[in-house]
Design goal:
Largest sheet: 2 strands, antiparallel
CATH architecture of one domain: Roll
GO cellular component, one term: nucleoplasm
Radius of gyration: 18 Å
Keywords: SH3 domain
Number of strands: 6
Order of helices and strands: HHHHEEEEEE
Distance between the termini: 13 Å
CATH superfamily of one domain: SH3 Domains
Strand order of the largest sheet: 1-4
CATH class of one domain: Mainly Beta
GO molecular function, one term: protein phosphatase 1 binding
Protein name: SH3 domain containing ring finger 2
Helix content: 25-40%
GO biological process, one term: positive regulation of JNK cascade
Length: about 140
């Protein structure tokens, strides 16, 4: 999950329901059953241990930005543009042990909260819903 458990519990107590903070889909499982946001957990662990992202081994910083990205940065000194910098392809995130699936075809969801993906996209699997379906 994206937030700490006390925050989620406070939200649930106030609203009597819990929704995904990103897509606002209603969550039907308990807070304890929610999967951890592994990327956030690793980032926080790195910050707590005092490691920089470059030395920690979880990420490699991009070596350069495209000229267009550099121009965006100068026009908005705080870096608050609608889309973040485009990273060069050599950035890597090590997520060993995180179940994944590769999309065999394009899919455009029919229901609110459905994923949209293209053939070849890698999808992180959050939990198995039944024998054939996963939430990702």
């Amino acid at each position: 999950h994206t937030f700490c458990k006390p925050c989620l519990q406070r939200i649930f107590k106030a609203h009597k329901e819990l929704r995904c903070p990103e897509c606002r889909t209603l969550v039907f499982c308990s807070i304890e059953a929610l999967p951890a946001n592994l990327l956030l957990v690793r980032l926080l662990d790195g910050v707590r241990s005092g490691q920089s992202l470059g030395r920690g081994g979880s990420f490699r910083r991009p070596s350069m930005l495209t000229p267009q990205d550099s121009r965006k940065s100068r026009t908005n000194p705080r870096g608050l543009q609608s889309s973040p910098f485009r990273l060069v392809p050599n950035i890597r995130i090590h997520m060993d042990g995180v179940p994944r699936a590769k999309a065999l075809c394009n899919y455009r969801g029919q229901n609110p909260g459905d994923l949209k993906f293209n053939k070849g996209d890698v999808i992180l699997l959050r939990r198995q819903l039944d024998e054939k379906w996963y939430q990702g």
